[in-house]
TrEMBL record:
Residues 46-156 form the Fibronectin type-III domain. It comes from Scleropages formosus. InterPro entries: FN3_dom, FN3_sf, Ig-like_fold, PHYHIP/PHYHIPL, PHYIP/PHIPL_C. Its interaction with PHYH suggests a role in the development of the central system. The keyword Transferase does not apply. This is Phytanoyl-CoA hydroxylase-interacting protein. Keywords: Glycoprotein.
Amino acid sequence: THTHTHTHTHTQPTTTCHKPESGQGWGEGTHSGQDELMAEMVSLSIPQNIQISEVTCDSFRIGWDMAPEDTGRVTHYFIDLSRKEGRDPNRFKHRDVPTKLVAKAVSLPMAVRGHWFLSPRTEYCVAVQTAVRLPEGGDYLVSEWSEVVEFCTGDYGTVHLQQLLQKAEGAAGRLLRFSVFYRNQHPDYFHHIRTACGGVMHPALKDSSGSHGSPINGTLSGIFLSCNTEFDTGLPPNDSPYGPLRFLIPAAHLLHPSTHLYFADFYCMYTPYHYVILVLTPAGSEGDLFCRTRLPQLDLTANPFLTYSPPQREGEEPAFCHARDVILEVFYTEPLHLDQGSVVEISGHHQLMSLSTANAKKDPSCKVCNISVGR
């Protein structure tokens, strides 16, 4: 039986993984006249063998074993759900109040879901109590807390990425023409590529920037490229937060009918700028196989972000367009040789670090780029 649990007390999750005190929050300070009743009742057994299954980015199923004599009289379950964080357990003791969830007793395992207390790809600790609600005053007879079990929520699923994609489509704006992909770095980077890597830029593992639940974070390797242009010139901007040297490669080298394009993320970082991450990968490649079951695939010739239009007549060049109102970050999954393009010096400022996205966290309060599942 599935059930939606609701927060009993709305508190911040605890920062440690300690076991709560027995009965903490329920069954303490009973009304006079009920003490004798509680004393006469047989105490509840401790829930055993906690099992977590079917974990998603915002839900999980939980079950446990109870003594047969308890099964018929337990009326409620109390679930202590807290984030697992490596902080000193003796600090901020007044904050160490678990997020307790209360549910009426149902058949186990039961589903726990809700974006108000679960975020994607986050480690949690969970413990449970069983309880019998007493007839007067609303107090409970409760069991001791179970053992604490740890688990980690998953990435965004298909349905969540589709929601994020719809949000991004609404922010993309009209399309502008472009002709090159580019990547800015400091001279030391390109010197290293030439002297230690044989002139080849190799894919690197995606960092944790952007949405917490994006399936490519820490799992897919690639090379970040830009394609955004200035509205008035149609050329790449002169400024960059990443460095004064720019690798340029013709768009036709990477974006063509033999490549696949996937949507991976949409986010902002407490600024007016919104970023869209797209994965560009050769059809049939390892990156393509990774994305095929995890990310929404986009039509190369008809999507709001990045398009390839084949030549209309013999002798014509294909046309390439990018979204005007978002900053596109194209994650290309294959190595690139510097000889495939050129490295030039740009004339603008190179210290715009507020625009750098390295390990940047998404603004969880933004109405434009957040969906109903955590950050």
